[in-house]
Amino acid sequence: MIEKIALFADELRRVNFVLPSDFSEYSFHPLGINRKSAPLFAGARVDRMLIISPFVRAQALRQLPGKDNILVSRADSLAQLSVNDIAQFSKTYFLNPAASSEQDEALRGSLSGLHAKVYIADAGWDANVWLGSANATSAALSSNVEFMVQLKGKKSTSGIDAILRDDGLISFATLLQEYEPTDDFVPVPPPEDDRFRFTFAKIQFAAIVISSDTSHELRLQYSAIQLDQWRDENNLHSVSCWPVTIPNCQKVLDDSGELCFGPLSVHELTGLFAFRLKVNDGDDLITSEFVLKCQLSGIPLNRNIAIVEQVLNSPEKVLQYLLFLLKGSAARVTASAWALDEGKVLLGSEGDRAIRPPIENIPMLELLLRTLVADRQKFDTVRRFLSEFEKLNLLPPGLLQIQDALMAAYAELYNDPN
Question: Domains, the chain, ranges and CATH?
Answer without folding.
Answer: 2-178 (3.30.870), 197-304 (2.60.40), 312-414 (no CATH)
